[in-house]
Amino acid sequence: MTGVEREIEIDRLAVGYGPCTVLENINLRFAPGRITGLIGPNGAGKSTLLKSLLGLIEPGAGEIRVDGTPLNNITIAERSRKLAYAAQGAPVHWPLTVEKMVALGRLPHLGPWQKIGSADREAIERAMTMTDSYRLRDRIVTTLSGGERACAMLARTIATDASWLLVDEPVASLDPSHQLQVMGILKNLAGQGHGIVIVLHDLTLARRYCDQLVLLHKGAVLAEGEPEQVLADDNLAAAYGIRAVRWQADGQEFIVPAEKL
């Protein structure tokens, strides 16, 4: 498959809930081997865009193509192998061990009543090792801390071994150490050729880890491109209504909201 075919294309996408339009005239391209961050204020349509890419929400207009094929022409089974989704919060209600929960990520590769094989077990162990969850493999998921559970849930997504990972606010409510750990894992996956599309609110993490940013505002794309361009003062003022303070340390730029305009 050529590099041109390996992309997610969004053309003239419009999405709404009943009479309410959430996204309108969205035109975007997501490339493999890169982290694309979706940023913007609450209600801008970030999570709706992710769910549209998965086919969980039927668009009112426009088209989404994954690796050159219209999303509607890709079977549910094939979508689940191409596109892995980590939902925001991702609650767990069953007393599963971490290993069994991560193993659920292999279901798209199994036929009816088919048992997990050696390749599946390797993918499960690799995902747990990558997320530092292997040491927790025998723990019940519901007994984990918030950070441990977030890493375990990310392991389940990684175990799918999908080309594209769609991740909705994976660092929400995590302590700083786990935030850096999760973002580092995603950066490593992008380096391995996976395409990562991630919803973020932390502007510094977006600046540090993302290769491309899409700033959504009122259901439209206000800015897209390199992080330093998208995070310009005028864009932050227009989207968030804030003035930000910036400083450099260890070769990294830090962006902190200073006041509401």
UniProtKB/TrEMBL annotation:
Transmembrane segments: none annotated. Residues 8-243 form the ABC transporter domain. InterPro entries: AAA+_ATPase, ABC_transporter-like_ATP-bd, ABC_transporter-like_CS, P-loop_NTPase. SMART domains: AAA. One of its GO terms (molecular function) is ATP binding. Keywords: ATP-binding, Nucleotide-binding, Translocase, Transport. Part of the ABC transporter complex HmuTUV involved in hemin import. Responsible for energy coupling to the transport system. Belongs to the ABC transporter superfamily. This is ABC transporter ATP-binding protein.
